[in-house]
Amino acid sequence: MTVASARGSSEPWADCRETHVSAVYLAGDKVLKVKKPVRTDFLDFSTLAAREAACAEEVRLNQRLSPDIYLGVSHLDLGTDELEPAVLMRRLSEHDRLSERLVSDAPQLRDYVRAIARLLAEFHERCEVSTGDESPGAWHRLAARWQREWDALGELDPRLAMPERGGAGRALGLRYLVGRRALIERRLADGRVRDGHGDLRAEHIYLTPSGIRILDCLEFDAQLRTCDVLSDVAFLAMDLEHHGAARAAADLLVDYAEFSGDVFPDSLRHFFVAQRALVRAKVSLIRARQVGDRSGESTTLLQRAEA
User: Fold this and answer.
1) What are 39's strand-pairing partners?
2) Which of 213, 186, 249 is nearest to 123 (CA)?
3) Residue 98 to residue 111: CA distance in whole angstroms
4) pLDDT tens digits, 274-287
5) In sequence order, which ranges of 180-263 are alpha helices (DSSP H)?
6) pTM score of the predicted model
7) What are the tens digits of pLDDT across the range 110-142?
8) Distance from C-alpha of 12 to C-alpha of 301, rounded to nearest angstrom
9) Are the CB atoms for 38 and 25 separated by under 8 Å?
């Protein structure tokens, strides 16, 4: 969940927003982000200690890209015996989000995408490398994760477990992985698997007067955050496509390859975009159970994964 400032008459001084795992309280030029006491198949915030650790980790990780935005961990008195931890942040303008600029500043989008690609290449160069058979980027781990994502979708919506949908998509992805095992193992050996961002989306990127700020790194599970750097960037490419900016998505991957010196086949890019679409569809279905039906978004993302 990204945050926005009260600069401008259209943005309220105070507000509250909610995701499937967090509640975000905005007031003046500050933000407090509280973890919900929830447990899912990919995180467990059911205890106070887990939420405290997650808040501290969120600050540490996000300071890698936005040290002036993530200010530390604060605590709230919610009327219980113990204080509730919360991430304290500086509030940013909603008008500075990349997702907003996709429409309002379309002529400058090419420059924005190129600058973001350069920043991500530099960021990944600093990130911790993951190697070995137990790395999340190892071939067998990647294949297992592909199957888990389809399993999770089928559990959330039984229609997606039917052979004509989930079965076909699962099989196509596995067939690709079998045929590209040497490529994936070579990228792992070459240090292309790193502890990156894990949730790169247009709404998490701010084009501020002080420069680009990227927020909301996936903090609760290093195994999900650690991946092939191309997979990290593919999340943003998938999201740009979802926003109707397919040209920007393609430019992002070309620019990233230039700045990082990475060389990869188009097929690998397509696979990672599909994998990220599955993740996004799963999150949409989880959110639908909490606040209402968003099956339209989930279906769109699933169609992108199948394509």
Assistant:
1) 44
2) 213
3) 12
4) 999 998 888 888 77
5) 181-189, 222-225, 229-242, 246-260
6) 0.84
7) 999 999 999 999 999 999 999 999 999 999 999
8) 31
9) no
